Amino acid sequence: MKFTLKKLDLEKSLGNLSKASQLKSDALVITSYQLADTKKKKLSGLVAAFDETLGGVITDLVNDENFKFKTGETTSVRLSGSERAAFALGPIKKVILVGLGEEEEFDKKAERKVAASILRKAKSEKITSLAVDSFGDIGLLVETLGLVNYEFTKYKSSDDKDDKKQLSEITILSSSVTAKEKEAVAKSEIIIDSVNKARDLVWEPACVVNPTYLAKEAKKIKGTGITVKVMEKAQCEKLGMGAYLAVAQAGGQPPKFIEMSYKPKGKIKKHIAIVGKGVTFDSGGLSLKPSKAMEMMKEDMSGSAATIGLMNAIAKLQPAGIQVTGIIAATENMPSASAYKPGDVITAMNGKTIEVNNTDAEGRLTLADAVAYVSQKNPDEIIDIATLTGACMVALGNTCAGIMTNNQDLLDLVKAVADEQGENMWQLPLYDEYKEKLKSTIADLINAGSGGQAGAQNGGLFIQEFVGNKGTTKKPIPWLHIDIAGPCWLDDASDWSPKGASGIPVRTLLNYILSV
Fold it and tell me: How far apart are CA 73 and CA 75, in angstroms?
């Protein structure tokens, strides 16, 4: 998708555009706030100007179809050749009318809904190029249009692709194109690219995305201050990563421990570590999943996909003063004669022993060593992202992530950004009483002990056991766990994503990091 920012006050220029400034799009989007609920509805602004030129066509439409310009409401008017000449708008054949809703209720959530409606209306009418008279936050408008436009068509036949006209270019019209607007559009394009990279990785089948593939994708990230290191099995063994390697020992693909680092020039005011679960396919191991539950287990690496997408954005945006470390302990979880078994006792990198009572609770084992490893780098905060538990989906569905923490201030800050970004997150408590379920009779911990109760929190509490202390203090590093088992894959389209892989929480974590 190509975005162009064009300086043009459409209302003032209507009917008087020179050939040089004529728009070159198939359709034009104009918006209006919701009309007052009176017997005679009064148009205003650009919509009124178009209506006058068209001889009252929009007024008739409003009255005949009861079109009120509610939030995200759309309709279109086809222009005749003579009407296009009167407007001096070149090849534009359609004017798409879109409602902004009540003016006093127009916020970022409403703007996303409007932008998503614009994009879907344009695609449904097979428009290939679109001009949009800007409204609200131009950066948010561009970001939403680009995110909602996403499709994964790599494995579609060429005939299927040719049958569908693609929306490939959007021109945003603004009465005054400022440096700030240009910067906002450039940032939005980076966000679109980064979220869509994460989505691509989740959509790809597990026969493509294995640990080696994730490592190669991580190495593609380039930028000032960016380094990428990949540790092989032997190196992980030397570090004592017994939990991670237990999961990996039955995989047909070698494990890859991936470390991406961004270190800015100058003084560092905060070091944030991001740990993404990287199980590229989860069969459940010897605690084998039912076939239906296994169908979508290619998505079990969504946390690692989000980490790679986030680091891609960090590399391009180069935030000042913030060091970011991205960690992925990539592996498959497969059954074989060499698989780890229920009843095994394994030792994690921090020395804690774990009795395995369920090999399908493997993600927390890989995260245990990843979190213990990054704790040694003494970050100011650790945030892990994982498709960890079906229990979280039972609690919150697939429209909301569960968040847990050992530091309420950190959670409050991230959740506030998530709310602003439209990525729903809800706090789940980590009560001390839940810890009783993690006790083993022969080891320090068992890896799955909820007994069907508070399963999401049980997973979170397990990971918390591997968070190190800050420096030489006895205070734990502030840590946040984001369980994205539900919203990593959307059953229904949202105002910022089509169905399927969502790319959550790339936007939340990026904007949190940029706000520090």
Answer: 7
Which residue carries 């847990």 as its tokens?
Answer: 404
β-sheet bridge partners, residue 74: 98
Q: Which amino acid is at 9?
A: D
Q: In Å, how far are 231, 237, 240, 330, 386 from 234, measured between CA atoms? A: 8, 5, 10, 14, 25
Q: In 3D, which of 267, 515, 463, 274 has the Cα closest to residue 381?
A: 274
3-state secondary structure 253-271: CCCEEEEEEECCCCCCCEE
Strands of 353-355's sheet in order across: 345-347, 353-355, 445-446
Known catalytic residue at 289: yes
- On the CB side of 462, CA atoms within 13 Å amount to 33
Tell me the two tokens of residue 215.
């490592």
Structure tokens at 82: 């003579």
Q: DSSP for 262-330?
A: E--SS---EEEEEEEEEEEEE--TTSPPPHHHHTTGGGGGHHHHHHHHHHHHHHHH--TTEEEEEEEEE
Give percent of the chain with pLDDT exceeding 90: 84
Q: Are 122 and 96 in contact (CB under 8 A)?
A: yes
Q: What is the DSSP letter of 252?
A: S
CA-based nearest residue to 92, from 148, 173, 2: 173
Q: Is 53 helix (H, G, I), strand (E, B) or coil?
A: helix
Active-site annotation holder among 298, 364, 437, 507: 364
Identified catalytic residue from 41, 289, 377, 470: 289
Contact between residue 513 and residue 324 where contact means Cβ atoms under 8 Å apart: yes
How much is the pTM? 0.96
In angstroms, rounded to a whole number, what is the distance separating the alpha carbons of residues 164 and 476?
Answer: 54
Rounded to an integer, what distance in angstroms lies between the CA atom of residue 443 and that of residue 309?
A: 37
With contact defined as beta carbons under 8 Å apart, do 425 and 401 qualify?
A: yes
DSSP string over 82-150: HHHHHHT-TT--EEEEEE---GGG--HHHHHHHHHHHHHHHHHTT-SEEEEE--S-HHHHHHHHHHHT-
Split at pLDDT 50, 70, 90, the class of 79 is confident
Euclidean distance between CA atoms 219 and 228, whole angstroms: 6
User: What is the rounded distance in angstroms from the CA atom of residue 146 to the CA atom of residue 167?
Assistant: 10
Q: Which domains does the chain show, CATH number per domain?
A: 2-175 (3.40.220.10), 193-515 (3.40.630.10)
- CA-to-CA distance for 75 and 61, rounded, in angstroms? 9
Whether residue 17 is predicted with pLDDT greater than 60 in this model: the reply is no
Residue 250 and residue 167: Cα distance in Å, rounded?
A: 45
Rounded Cα distance, 479 and 377, in Å: 14
Q: Give the pLDDT of residue 496.
A: 97
Q: Is there a catalytic annotation at residue 84?
A: no
**348 close to 241: Cβ distance less than 8 angstroms:** yes
The rounded distance, in Å, linking the Cα atoms of 357 and 195 is 36
